[in-house]
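note to self: dont lose this again. the chain is below, predicted strucutre after it. 253 aa total, dont forget to put it in the shared folder this time
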Amino acid sequence: MRRPRHPDVVVVVAAVAAAGALGFALRPQHTPIVAVAPASAEIQRPALPQTKLLTALVISDSYTSGSGLPETSYACRAVTEMGWLCQLAAEPGTGYISGGDANRFPLDQGRGQSSSFGERVTALSRYYSPDIVIFDGGRDDTFAPPVARFQVTVSAIWQAHQTWPKARIVFVKPRFLATPDDDLGVNDDIVDLLRQATEVKDLVVIDPIIRFKDTDTKGLISPDGTNPNREGEEALAAALVEEFSQNGMQPAT
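---
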């Protein structure tokens, strides 16, 4: 037990005046002792509520990550708005096929060789244990035959489910904000087949860019004509939050 900072007992002594030259005798007097209970070393404090923040791992391309810091990407903005922690694993020019064996290429800034989404799951499993896994890509896979694209997409989702069986898997339908009407070949029939083939019963499929269908999005696109500008990223983040909420994914409280 920790010792209190002050003595456990305080002694109060009453002084007695002594007789002087007159020769009065001193009489012994009892000194009153006042005992003070020691302070308790164990202080009961109310317990603070323990809240575990959900972690969302976003596996994506440069379209999702944007041109700034990871936390400013539209994906991480949306994840943060939901009250989750964002972990962004984005590589430019990659997808379910692109960046893998079909067309591997060196990444910039000395980051080694590119990887497909499925390959990335294996590498990320050593470092992350997410509650939510979000696949946002496929825009760079349009060079491949539809059957091949479908097969590797199924493989990546299935692999993520096997790697993190307790995690919620989210598949974002690939589109470009500049052409929101174009589903890049991933139509509703493909999505239905995807649900069946992955065998992930609670697979969440969202389509945030379809919200901009029949809308003039020129003011949301950067000068390169493809990627979203700052306003576009803000609009995509808001659309992504709405898609999460409408699919039963609740924000942290």
